[in-house]
Write a structure and sequence with these properties.
single chain, alpha/beta, Rossmann fold, eight-stranded mixed sheet, four-stranded mixed sheet, 5 helices
């Protein structure tokens, strides 16, 4: 199985690489958009601001390559900011266009007594049964984010409660997204990554 982690200077690649090694998979860190279609699966990680991430992707032509990969029918997983980038736009520090692979937008958590960013362990409640959660029903995973995805119910795999109920996992055909960090979520996260590998 040929797996790539996309490098566009906005992700903690080492932790994803190490998590995959724990489930017996050696991944390639790929920064050349011309190479993406040769892989069986790709992971789009991300840490930081939406607008900066899209600028990095666009500057190196990775945005078009990701869309082309998504249209190929091969499996892709977006993690945290990487999941948010799959959507049409974000209101983080202004209005920014996303990859537009899944319909919806990224919104900031409303003001409340709860601390923002939402940071720490929380549970994903499965809305729809899916093989990516096989063996990890309603898992506790590690979150770090100030924005959440607003999308149609048909795209929702799981939701999480943090003052409001927000979408924390999505799927559109061959495209998956996780708001939490599976690579930082111990056994549950490793199981989810293994399930993605096994798709």
């Amino acid at each position: 199985m040929n797996l790539a982690i996309l490098n566009y200077n906005m992700g903690n690649l080492a932790s994803v690489i190490n998590a995959l090694r724990k489930v017996g998979v050696e991944a390639t860190i790929e920064k050349n958009p011309d190479n993406i279609l040769k892989y069986d699966k790709i992971i789009l990680p991300g840490v930081g601001a939406f607008g900066d991430a899209m600028e990095h992707l666009t500057d190196i032509g990775m945005d078009r390559a990701i869309v082309e990969f998504a249209n190929s029918g091969k499996y892709m997983l977006g993690i945290c900011l990487g999941m948010q980038l799959l959507f049409e736009q974000s209101e983080e520090f202004g209005e920014h266009k996303g990859l537009g692979i899944i319909s919806g937008e990224v919104r900031r958590f409303p003001k409340s007594e709860l601390k923002i960013p939402h940071m720490g362990w929380n549970r994903i409640d499965e809305v729809h049964q899916n093989s990516i959660f096989k063996g990890v029903s309603n898992p506790y995973l590690y979150f770090v984010h100030s924005y959440f995805v607003d999308t149609e119910e048909k795209n929702v795999l799981g939701k999480t409660d943090y003052g409001i109920e927000f979408v924390s996992s999505v799927q559109k055909e061959n495209i998956f997204g996780l708001q939490p960090h599976p690579e930082k979520s111990h056994e549950n996260g490793l199981k989810i990554l293994q399930n993605f590998i096994n798709l």
